[in-house]
Amino acid sequence: MRPIFAIKFNNAKGMTLLEIIITILILGILSSISIPHFASWLAQNEEDASLEQIKLIIEQTKQQAKLISKSCQLQLVDNLINDLTVYKNSTDKKCLSGSTETATIGTKIVPQVKLSSGIKIHSNLANNILSISFRGIRPVTLNKSQEQPAIIVLEKNGKISQKCLLISPRVGLIRSGIYKDKNWNEYNAENFCQIIL
């Protein structure tokens, strides 16, 4: 009697050259579709992480300004956040409490935080300076209004991000939004940053 699950090996063949070429072709097509999507996903995650880092730094600076009862000044330039606050002596608590790096601006050595490389910060702030005190945030925008919200948008490799931060004056409420324009317009930015509810 012959077993039911008998396997014949004498007839077994390997893969033909045509089958190998077709397999490689399918893998090439799948990788050509997935690699650009993966690269754009990585770039978007880097932008999101940088925007969240800016939000966290502003929140920590608000808390630090309350703690030391001092008005703090943050300058947002390229991929850097500089602490331009004037301190009486070097032992004072700093507004950028988690900063370990420093930079020389003019004759002053100031604390600094670096964002990811390739990131550039855009804002509608005058001189890109955000004033934060224990009374709240006082963004002075380019058209010199303290009642207008501050808008922060990132640029990565020449492309404007689709996300933005909107900082309410006085109260200092920081909300994330979607930036609806493909170009940066500093004088009309609040019309393009729509809040996500």
Automatic annotation (TrEMBL):
A Pfam family per the record: N_methyl
Keywords: Membrane, Plasmid, Transmembrane, Transmembrane helix
PROSITE patterns per UniProt: PROKAR_NTER_METHYL
Domain of life: Bacteria
Entry's transmembrane regions: 20-43
Upper classification of the organism: Bacteria, Bacillati, Cyanobacteriota, Cyanophyceae, Oscillatoriophycideae
Keyword Translocase: no
Organism of this sequence: Gloeothece verrucosa (strain PCC 7822)
Protein name: Prepilin-type N-terminal cleavage/methylation domain-containing protein
Matches recorded under NCBIfam families: IV_pilin_GFxxxE
Keyword check for Metal-binding: no
InterPro entries reported for this sequence: N_methyl_site, Pilin-like
